[in-house]
Amino acid sequence: MKKLILAGLILASSQMTLAVNWIDVGLSSKRDKEKTYIDLDTFGAVKINKNIYVSAWVKQDYPVLRRMPDGRVYSSETTLNYFDCNYRKWLIVEQHRYYNGGVIWSAKTQHSLSSSQSWDTAIPNSIGEALLEEACTSYSIMKNQ
Q: What are residue 107's DSSP bridge partners?
């Protein structure tokens, strides 16, 4: 019985932990001076219609608290992003904001996922471009292994 309980606890704890490999993309905005990371352990390909997009979680840590329109503050956020490597576009699909380690706000996109036509274009020398490059390069390497 003890072995069964121990096995159940180990199984449950392994489900709660996620492998995270945050890579600093090396850019931040002049205004916020945030640290921006991409998680290379959770990226992959998403096929929607006949289009293949690269998905990856992105994390931003802010040295100064940011304020939401309703007055709540947050110190970091994670976003699930889709990247269209062919057309150099990206979209935030899911977003979570944190304060003191807890989620204070979450949202999912209302944009169309069937085509990247309305997504953001990666602006040269921007955080978006750095994330797109990292995700697309890593996906290309993984695909060719």
A: 95
Q: What residue type is 137 in one-letter code?
A: T
pLDDT of residue 11: 38
Q: CB of 20 within 8 A of CB of 40?
A: no
Structure tokens given for 39: 């998680």
Tokens 């697309």 identify what position?
136
Q: Ramachandran region of residue 49, left (φ > 0), alpha (ψ -120 to 50) or beta? A: left
Closest by Cα among 60, 141, 126 to 90? 126
First vs last C-alpha separation in the chain: 44
Side chain identity at residue 120, one-letter code: D
Q: Per CATH, which fold does 22-144 belong to?
A: Lipocalin (2.40.128)
- Amino acid letter at 73? V
State the 10-residue block means of pLDDT for the chain, 145 residues long: 39 46 82 88 90 95 96 97 96 97 95 89 92 93 84
Confidence (pLDDT) at 3? 41
User: Which residues lie below 8 Å from residue 19, measured CB to CB, with a gap of 6+?
Assistant: 41, 42
Largest CA distance in the chain: 60
